[in-house]
Amino acid sequence: MKRIAFIGSGGSGKSTLAQKLGRKLNIEVYHLDTLLWKPNWEPTTKEEQKRIQLGLIKREQWIIDGNYNGTMDIRLEAADTIIFLDFNRVLCTYRVLKRAIKYYNRKRPDMAEGVNERLDFNFIKWVWDYPKKIRPIVMRRLENLPENKKVIILKSPKEAHQFLEIVKTGRP
Known about the structure:
Blueprint: E1 3-8, H1 14-25, E2 29-31, H2 32-36, E3 37-38, E4 42-43, H3 46-56, E5 62-65, H4 72-78, E6 81-85, H5 89-103, H6 121-133, H7 135-143, E7 150-154, H8 157-169
Parallel strand pairs: 1-5, 1-6, 2-5, 6-7
Antiparallel strand pairs: 3-4
């Protein structure tokens, strides 16, 4: 595991797990939310998103967390390991709401300067709809990857914790 892509619904814990794994493996972590949002929630263009990610994947080692479905293939093709946090919608929605309250009108650790947390009902709806609308697309992408890719699907925080323990100790 040297080139790791984290994907999953908002609120699944991608950034947190990526940070923990990065510390264990001594690999730098790149949060796409930090890199792809400009102040006041202004998005970067698709061309900028591609350019930034193409630069990141040239590195020998990396952990990149984030969905960005329009550019996901860049990361999936370059990664040797893909970790999909496939958590249930209730947990993810709860976490998004909790995060919005905790950081409301302040910057989260995994966001760019000038991008303060807000309560965004469209995003909450996206998280709620993720299992029906986005997950099937992600699963098709994962199923169509070459066999040399290691795909790890974690279905709960408990499985995520167990995964980190295995990485830490080298055994289940």
